[in-house]
Amino acid sequence: MTAAELRTHQWRGLDGDHAQGGTAWAWKKHHERPDYVVLRSWALPGSCRTKLADYLAVRLKDGHSRAFYVKPLWRAARLERKPGVLVARVERVEADLREGWTQNPRALLAYRLSG
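Structure (tokenized):
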């Protein structure tokens, strides 16, 4: 993928990174490593979290609750919850939905994440 192609994606702010000296090359040149906050900002701009929430809502057959799914994703991105825990809970809710144990995946996920 070329630099021009990278610039067309919403999840990448290459021009802004370059202007601020925040590219991987700039970090390497100064023998530094970006911290978690910097890496998270590169990987998860706001529009990406919304898209992940849309994906979860569709995956759990709960399209009218898209806004609900943003909060658990944001908590995982800020490491307030281990991302693996969120994935495991979503997979369990998905299995319960498939097996007919729940009609309300949003409520079940909220319950499972509360403990």
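Helices lie at 3-8, 14-19, 24-29, 36-43, 46-59, 66-77, 83-98, 105-114. DSSP finds eight helices and no strands in the chain.
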